[in-house]
Amino acid sequence: MSVATATSIQVTGARRVYPSGAGGELVALNDVDLSVRAGSFVSVIGPSGCGKSTLLRLVAGLEDPERGEVRVCGVSPHEAAAAKMLGLVPQTPALLPWLSVLGNVKLPAKVNRGASRKRAGVPGPSMEELLRKAGLQDAMHKLPSQLSGGMQQRAAIVRAFALRPDVLLMDEPFSALDEFTRESLQEQLLDLWDELQATVLFVTHSVTEAVRLSDRIVVMAPRPGRITEVIDVDLPRPRGSALLKTPEFHHYEDLVRDALRGAFHGS
Ligand SMILES: Nc1ncnc2c1ncn2[C@@H]1O[C@H](COP(=O)(O)OP(=O)(O)OP(=O)(O)O)[C@@H](O)[C@H]1O
Ligand SMILES: [Mg+2]
Predict the structure, then answer these.
(1) Å from CA of 28 to ligand 1 middle
(2) Contact, 232 vs 215, CB < 8 A?
(3) The domain containing residue 24 runs over which residues?
(4) Counted domains in the chain
């Protein structure tokens, strides 16, 4: 792999400011540097309001930084999105209410006439297969309004995989799920990630989830939103449920909790 393609996401000195009433301003992100290796799984964790979703929106090209630069697969986020290299699962999934689950999931591929050019020839699972893996086999022909919140979230995740993007951005995709469904979906996500060899940038509030899924965990703090610590998770894969009970796993959970304590107390 060449140096140019070895880094999937490169954020350099990014700053994002929002107006905050009465002429004031809120620094949602300040001087953020982030480098995500192609094919790796990176989680972002931090207190509410520290800029996690803002960071994802910058990488997705939905917003631009006031200062600094964002590159995705060596091009701008807008170009990466146009080339269908980017998939996004937003914090609140929006499914089209008049289409069945299967219709929603197949829509991106239909609208965009196929997967990312780079991956068009790469064989992958069918949408029906992905829905089955996500436990939605019985929901395929139902409308979103007939599903629970967690099922809608799962459908949105499968839809993001539909284009087989090179880079998948996920904003707290499992937050509406009970613990057991969440664990099973984490396993399915890791399987899919392995199969599709995508780069994943994943926002979560769960320390256990971050440690289980990630190669690297980025810890953020608010006011101004910034990265305070980066923790490499050197645990073997596949990471089955037995690993969660090992001292090595607890060691990483402790590291992340300590870093988060600092982030909450403004260090
Ligand atoms: N469009 C906007 N206009 C004004 N302020 C905004 C806007 N979007 C975000 N903010 C502010 O920027 C800061 C960062 O918001 P962001 O949504 O990125 O936080 P977050 O880390 O994702 O939080 P959470 O964990 O609650 O989802 C917050 O203080 C938020 O109020
Ligand atoms: Mg958020």
Answers:
(1) 7
(2) yes
(3) 3-94+165-264
(4) 1
